Amino acid sequence: MISNHQIYNSNIENHIFYYKKFIIEIKKTFILISFHKQIYLELEDTQNMYDMLYQIHLKTNKKLTLLLDVNGVIGTNKASRDLGTSALAIKITQKLVLVTDSMISKLMANFFMKVTPPPYPIRIVNSINEGIKCLQKH
């Protein structure tokens, strides 16, 4: 599925793409994905996200460093989670930092990472600022 948003030029830094359930912001050294509050993440939403990330990957010809603010996500389904460890995700993702201030979300994320180990480095942090610092260190 190709998203409604297309990237036409090679200078993609500082672009912002708005979707029904999330926003993708292209920063200089990472991509920030912020989910809206109180959303349930469906497979279609995750596919839209990865479609755009794939376009960015094609434009930059680099694996992507992702900062995902999942504080707004109240749930997701298995198919959506599985897409995060799919061949496409592996191909385009260098590393991932999840932002959540919820202990339950952290426990769930750690559980799912044990059930389906991610093929790229993942860190879980409490805030976007902490995530940015984490990305700058590594």
Tell me what the structure shows:
The chain is built from 5 helices and 8 strands, in the order ββββαββααβαβα. A hairpin with a 3-residue loop joins strand 1 (16-18) and strand 2 (22-26). The protein has 138 residues and is α/β, with parallel strands linked by helices. The strands form 2 sheets. A 6-stranded mixed β-sheet has the order 1-2-3-5-7-8. Strands 4-6 form a two-stranded parallel sheet. It has helices at 43-60, 78-83, 87-92, 103-115, 128-137, and strands spanning 16-18, 22-26, 31-35, 39-41, 64-69, 73-76, 93-99, 122-125. The chain starts with 15 loop residues before the first strand and ends with a helix.
Helicity, as a percent range: 25-40%
What value does the average pLDDT take?
87
Our Rg estimate from Cα atoms comes to 14 Å
Structural class: alpha/beta
Low-confidence sequence ranges: none
Specify the biggest β-sheet: 6 strands, mixed
CA(first)-CA(last) distance = 33 Å
Quaternary state, please? single chain
Number of strands: 8
List keywords for this structure.
138 residues; 6-stranded mixed β-sheet; 8 strands; 38% helix; globular
Itemize the secondary structure elements and their pairings.
Elements: E1 16-18, E2 22-26, E3 31-35, E4 39-41, H1 43-60, E5 64-69, E6 73-76, H2 78-83, H3 87-92, E7 93-99, H4 103-115, E8 122-125, H5 128-137
Parallel strand pairs: 3-5, 4-6, 5-7, 7-8
Antiparallel strand pairs: 1-2, 2-3
Give a short synopsis of this structure.
With 138 residues, the protein is an alpha/beta fold. It contains five helices and eight strands; from the N terminus they run ββββαββααβαβα. Helix content is 38%, strand content 27%.
